[in-house]
Amino acid sequence: MNKGEVVSLIGANGAGKTTTLRALSGMIPFSGGIEFQGQNLAKVPSHQIVRLGLAHSPEGRGVFPNLTVAENLQMGAFSRKDKAEIARNLEHCYELFPRMKERLKQKAGTLSGGEQQMLAISRALMAQPTLLLLDEPSLGLAPLIVAQIFEIIKKVNKEGVTILLVEQNARMALKVSNRAYVVETGKITLSGKGSELLNDPRVVASYLGGH
Amino acid sequence: MTLTDRSARIRFLKSLLSPTLTILGMIGVGIALDIITNAYVQFVILLMIANTVMATSLNLVSGFTGQFSLGHAGFMAVGAYVSAWLAMHPALAGAPDLLKYLLLPIASGLAAAAAGYIVGLPSLRLRGDYLAIVTLGFGEIIRVVILNSPAIGGARGLYGIPSAMPLEEIGLSAFSTQFAISSAWCVITVFTLWRLVHSARGRAFLSVREDEIAAEAMGINVTQTKVRAFVISSFFAGVGGALFAHSVKYLNPATFTFTKSVDFIIMIVLGGMGSFSGSIIAAAVITILPEMVLRELQSITGVDLRMVIYSLLLILFMILRPSGILGTLEIPDLLKRFKRKAVQNG
């Protein structure tokens, strides 16, 4: 991956997309090499990886349901110590997601699905990552909300955060991606620019449906 | 209520002044209790304090960090026997009395914390049922080791455990002295754990309970956090054990079976997993209910229905209020709620 890109992995259920992300953030062991900013991640424990600037927003949102929105956001900055910077990040999150600010004292579990996803993304951003891993941000959300989320993904990317996106919603993912890979049973079967894959007959047939 | 008033109140609660004042107040309560109650009631009160320490410490592991431990009585046993053995040791006979009994719980706590570390390090990689079985096994190991150690009484138990001498110069009877020591440690336990859980670092415990994968993604070392909770909890379980030893003055390995651990679990479930106030209330209720209320009932009716009523109450409670008396709320949260309701109703 190059700096400033949006790269997406698309593919069917069980293709190995989530596994790839988990390997990246060190939650499952892997063979072979993963390098991040010139450092091999194979031996770095997962709680250290966040400190290197790689934040993971897990599948199914994974907010802490019984903590308040504010506490969730503070957890995102858990590995950081610079209080002034954290406060600035927090302000920035409110700009991206004005609704977060209204609901600071509410328990995260009582938010709507879309709000929880927004919270999960802003929480990951609180770690001030250079690379953001997003696992299925559109999962179970209404199309309108999905469109909003992808708007935000674009915005975050414009601010210089590199994004690795795992999606089943291939059409949306390909539209925002610079590059994309199609994963099938653990192997990359196709790769190319997002716009190219969007028109690739094989991708259209398998993942986009016949439109 | 203005904001400054409230924040000043919170700052006071968080400062070290509040536990100090509470401890001083408890000494007064002890003197009062000494006058108005008999020896049996006093014994139950001391038991209640030890149980409060046990329940709040277990709440850190099970309620706040979400790890199910069935071996809490094991750590209590370690603490109880260490404190009793040290108190009876001739080398410490010359030590100033009050100081000795105030500080013995620290030794107990350290011993129990060491045991907690040894158990926690390998077993906290396990989850749910598996962890419960390992901790259950550990608790039994401790008990069997004590049972087979003649030096600390073995199966006969340990008799004649000394406790703090009365401080008649300042008007404290034997009970008031022990009450002061016990409640001091109880306040220290609750205050420390409360401040810990509500600190930025302590929120790591909560996040592990909520979602381990997400916690890990936040840069939290999940296993280390669990071990930390376990060790701290064991420390205070050891403290609770020491208070128990000097209140009861007789230790028997049969006291620390797995049913004892279950008692503590009942307390935190009944009080609300993740609520310190709930643990305190439930520890009081569960100690007093079978002892005093139901025993009275027995002497009136002539039938021993204590355990029947006790179990029925527990079942009813869990059906009617499954999240416990307070859920995850604390008493100040409740007060806030009442105030808001009062304002809404005009």
How would you characterize the overall build of this protein?
The complex is a heterodimer of chains A (211) and B (346). Chain A is α/β, with parallel strands linked by helices and 211 residues long. Helix content of chain A is 42%, strand content 18%. Chain A contains ten helices and eight strands. Chain A has helices at 17-24, 46-49, 69-76, 83-96, 98-102, 113-125, 143-158, 170-176, 194-199, 201-208; strands at 6-10, 35-36, 39-40, 54-57, 131-135, 162-167, 179-184, 187-193. Chain A has a six-stranded mixed β-sheet with strand order 4-5-6-1-7-8, with helices on both faces. In chain A, strand 2 (35-36) and strand 3 form a beta hairpin. Chain B has 346 residues and is mainly α. Chain B has one domain (15-257). In chain B, helix 3 (39-64) packs antiparallel against helix 10 and helix 3 (39-64) crosses helix 11. The longest helix of chain B has 27 residues, at 97-123. Chain B starts with a helix and ends with a helix. The mean pLDDT of chain B is 86. The chains are: A alpha/beta (211), B mainly alpha (346).
